[in-house]
Design goal:
single chain, 381 residues, alpha/beta, five-stranded parallel beta sheet, 10 strands, 44% helix, globular, binds 5-amino-5-deoxy-1-O-phosphono-D-mannitol
């Protein structure tokens, strides 16, 4: 079943180009074989009830763990692309401290298993408390999952099936990437409805999405061996720091979570600009820093935050498209990723961080697919 891979996790990392392709193919009506940009100006078909997305004023997202990280990328997209104020809540917090009721609100539950107790409870609570308080407060629930047959869909009639299929490794990989793809489609659909993006920009982003599967393949092909070799340097490391900004801050969080859950190495993530407000005190030669530095709004800022870490003797690993010559000035080690539109970059920056966590844990001889103390579905509170 592992098809020659040592662990399910690695197999699932390698399934990502296919998963992204099949998620996009399900909801994008474009010509996949032609090199041309999308034929239709509005090719997104999510198949949701029309009333769900009409006259929205805000979005709230409830989720746990890695799905919460996908929600953070979703927030960035919904706010920056569709101009919709969005809050992301840990489901376990929201269910006991719900935010004040606001009208015309879309509530999105994100869960790969579709069975996470806290996420289901938060959605149920939202449904109950909005019952009978007037039309404009009516519950509008949307689920994002790869398990459309799960308990989630009994509670939430509108589902975006991410088409990631079943994931066996306890560490979420392909399901995360597919959840993020679902958020791109939703944000672009809403941007079109709300006219917050020009037709040209929409076309450019859709074309960018279409390129992603081949670009993920490129990252996998170029880095698999390299990251495996690099992992030897970190087998004995005790602490890691991950930094990113903007749309790549959630990817720093996700990279750190992957490392801690399967390798049991302590890892923390911060928005790079926060380092000087405390965490920089942790840095020395024993604490490597992984910096996600993608060209765009915060590129120079991340590079200068990275330099500050290097000045504290931390080994600096850059996830960046900078060429070797340029990168050498800033980073000790580079995990190269193709240069893409900043908005689409999280899909590509995720992959080297998954590989890094995987290879460190595998070299430590750990049970990567079944890490201690963790379960694939957390069906208890
Ligand atoms: O099934 P869900 O997406 O609702 O699960 C949420 C978390 O339990 C899950 O993402 C967990 O953090 C994973 N082990 C992450 O790899």
């Amino acid at each position: 079943e592992k098809q020659g891979f040592k662990h399910f996790m690695l197999k699932e990392i390698y399934e990502q180009p296919g998963v992204v392709r099949s998620c996009l193919e399900s909801y994008l009506e474009i010509n996949w074989t032609s090199q041309e940009t999308s034929s239709s100006p509005y090719p997104i078909r999510l198949g949701l009830e029309e009333s769900l997305l009409e006259n929205l004023e805000q979005v709230q997202i409830v989720a746990c763990g890695t799905s919460w990280h996908a929600g953070l990328v979703g927030k960035y997209l919904l706010e920056q692309v569709a101009q919709l104020p969005t809050q992301v809540h840990y489901a376990s917090e929201f269910r006991y401290a719900p935010t004040p009721l606001m009208p015309h609100t879309l509530t999105i539950g994100v869960t790969q298993s579709g069975e996470t107790a806290d996420t289901l409870a938060a959605l149920e609570m939202e449904k109950q408390r909005r019952n009978g308080v007037g039309e404009k407060f009516q519950a509008r629930l949307l689920g994002i999952t790869n398990r459309p047959e799960s308990s989630l869909s009994r509670l939430v009639p509108n589902i975006i099936d991410t088409h990631a299929g079943i994931e066996i490794g306890v560490a979420a990989t392909k399901t995360f990437v597919a959840q993020v793809i679902a958020f791109y489609l939703l944000a672009l659909d809403l941007a079109h409805r709300r006219q917050t993006l020009s037709r040209d920009r929409l076309g450019v982003l859709i074309e960018g999405l279409r390129q992603l599967p081949a670009q993920i393949e490129q990252v996998l092909e170029s880095q698999e061996r390299y990251v495996e070799a690099l992992a030897h340097e970190f087998v004995e490391t005790h602490d890691f720091i991950y930094i990113g900004r903007g749309i790549n801050f959630p990817i720093a969080l996700e990279g750190a979570l992957k490392l801690k859950e399967i390798s049991y190495i302590h890892a923390e993530a911060y928005p790079a600009g926060e380092m000087k407000h405390g965490p920089i005190a942790l840095l020395d030669a024993k604490v490597p820093v992984v910096a996600i530095a993608m060209p765009g709004t915060v590129f120079d800022k991340v590079l200068s935050n990275a330099q500050e870490a290097r000045a504290r003797d931390s080994q600096l690993i850059g996830v960046t498209p900078l060429d070797e010559e340029e990168a050498r000035h800033t980073f000790d080690v580079v995990l190269p990723v193709p240069e893409v539109d900043e908005l689409l970059s999280p899909i590509l920056t995720t992959v080297p961080l998954q590989l890094l966590a995987y290879h460190i844990a595998a070299l430590r001889g750990l049970d990567v697919d079944q890490p201690r103390n963790l379960a694939k579905s957390v069906t208890v509170e």
